[in-house]
Amino acid sequence: MSIEQLNSENPIGIFDSGIGGLTVVKAIQAALPSERLIYFGDTARVPYGPKSQVTIRKYAADDTAILMRYQPKVIIVACNTVSALALDVVEKSCGNIPVIGVLKSGAKLAVEWTNNNRIGVIGTQATVCSNAYACAINQLDPDIEVISQACPLFVPLAEEGFINHPVTKLVAEHYLGEIRKQDIDTLVLGCTHYPILRQVIEETIGGGIHIIDSAEAVALRTRELLSESGLLNRSGKASVPHLLVSDLPQKFSMLYQLFMGSELPDVDLVEV
Amino acid sequence: MSIEQLNSENPIGIFDSGIGGLTVVKAIQAALPSERLIYFGDTARVPYGPKSQVTIRKYAADDTAILMRYQPKVIIVACNTVSALALDVVEKSCGNIPVIGVLKSGAKLAVEWTNNNRIGVIGTQATVCSNAYACAINQLDPDIEVISQACPLFVPLAEEGFINHPVTKLVAEHYLGEIRKQDIDTLVLGCTHYPILRQVIEETIGGGIHIIDSAEAVALRTRELLSESGLLNRSGKASVPHLLVSDLPQKFSMLYQLFMGSELPDVDLVEV
Known about the structure:
The structure is a homodimer.
Chain A: E1 12-16, H1 22-31, E2 37-41, H2 53-68, E3 74-77, H3 80-85, H4 87-93, E4 99-101, H5 102-113, E5 118-123, H6 125-130, H7 132-140, E6 145-150, H8 154-159, H9 166-180, E7 186-189, H10 198-205, E8 210-213, H11 214-228, E9 242-245, H12 252-260, E10 267-269
Parallel strand pairs in A: 1-2, 1-3, 2-9, 3-4, 5-6, 5-7, 7-8, 9-10
């Protein structure tokens, strides 16, 4: 299917390693309330962050193939780890359908915000080790200094609901203590789980630092792209997202509420 | 292959959702230094603890099939979550080969130790919700009271090397504060990662409580079973375990050292 054949009524496809990408769903619903959304979360193999590039690339191809069954007009890679290590795999797996990764969207917005050319990035082990944020930022402006920090415990803390817990404050201090001394003026939340812990992160990193939520960044970029290519759905009605997952664990409903602030709708289970 | 056809020189097969089962490998090496060990860790799909029973049962069948290629004389389920939710799947997948799960071994040892008939059990969400420890303990002695507590953050804390960190002490206080008031005299570490955090767990739960390490329990049970069935390898030489994994992430070597206290040997990558 070429981009000319895409129909504005087709859904926006979004995928993530698990449920973290729901922060992207929420941001897209807010920015584009008339669009149909289809979301796939690979809950049977989550998390991707601590795994190898080979495995992450294999999973990215599987995830794209699942969304392709629903003829999306655009595919959004809500997973920072996949955006960092396997965006080309997604692009190759979906023909001419445009692909938007959270990473490049977040990098672009951070470059627009920084005044002192010092940007901090926090993310999973795989995202930070890939150096993909620094590359994307320096492609836009080679003079910007990027200071990165992996924060692997933030995902389990968010998923366990330790939102404003003293444990989370102590972990945030452990991870962000060093980056706080680096005179950054902008901090990218380079993992879709991190907006859940935004308050603790903001308090720990200190005042005057602009926080870039990659979920909001990707929503802005999606609106821009659909508008430019005449694919905005102007006649659609606000609807609940169509949810696909590869596993339905006991606490899925609790996590959905934590991320979306609303009751869990029907969910389809798909095999990976 | 019937149990009569099994050869004492065949290896002991051990599997786990990831690298946590290496605590079982270490305990078996100590108890049975002349045995050949083959270990499979499903590092591409770890963790199992937060996932659903359907998915855990599917993964258990895959893991058993991988070990079966090496003609083990016994299969040890080093994963408490699989032992709790899918031991029958493993038994069905491996014909007449004896299967030993960490869970029943841990339960048996705890029943032998308790004097006041009050046993605490800590484990993953899936293990605790399955109620499998309480069932196994009460099958041996219906008068014993079992007090269980899921400690989902212990696994990521152990894997991040937060061994004696103030964060781990605070998390331990959060999980164990309530169980400490329950007058237990025995506590089962119902997850193979927990021995890594044993010191913090012991300090938090308080003195006078006997800790059951399910890795040590399963090693004792394995020696017993091999001895009873004439399958002890009396002529073997101590050797490094044969390691199979489904993913080889960057920090695998660091984690191997954390669990085994020795340098990482050669590792084979297998597809699941």
